[in-house]
Amino acid sequence: MVAVVVVAVLAVVSFPIHRKYVRHARTTEATTRLGEIIDAARTYAVQNPDAAGNPIWPPASGGGLVSLAATPCFSYAIRSGAGRNARTNALAVRAVGRSGTRMAGVTITMTAPSIDRNAGNPVVIGL
Q1: In the chain, which stretches have pLDDT less than 50?
Q2: How crowded is the C-beta side of 80, counted as CA atoms within 13 Å?
């Protein structure tokens, strides 16, 4: 009987911890994907300059090297900077937790200040 009580207590304690680890793992997955999108956007910008030779961020719809395909828990979008000069404008990309998943309500944003500077730390809301 004592063993049953011990197992029950362990299950009650471990379940919230397990959920926390799963949510953080999925957040890390989305953050990694945002970094990949920014890297692809940089490559796109270098390969698609404007008439003056300035690199241009990809369009908001992505395209070319920049895939905004959704994953099981998140959808991805270019939030700002699309189609603008990549040397003078920031590119912000966002992952939004898909409804019907445990990540619903979670939003992660990463911003690259320009093509020449690294993206800042992700901003996570709703975790």
Answers
A1: none
A2: 10
CB 57 within 8 A of CB 82: yes
**Among 18, 76, 80, 83, residue whose Cα is nearest residue 49:** 83
Measured distance CA(16)–CA(39) in Å, rounded: 35
pTM of the model: 0.83
Which string of DSSP letters, residue by residue, matches 90-120? -EEEEEEEPTTSTTTT-EEEEEESSTTS---
Q: Rounded to an integer, what distance in angstroms lies between the CA atom of residue 29 and that of residue 36?
A: 11
Beta bridge partners of 91: 112
The average confidence (pLDDT) of the chain is 89
Q: In the beta sheet, which residues pair with residue 78?
A: 93
Q: What's the CA gap between 1 and 11, in Å, rounded? A: 16
pLDDT tens, residue by residue, 111-124: 999 999 998 899 99
> Are residues 91 and 81 in contact, defined by beta-carbon separation less than 8 angstroms?
yes
- Residue-wise pLDDT for 75-84, tens only, equals 999 999 999 9
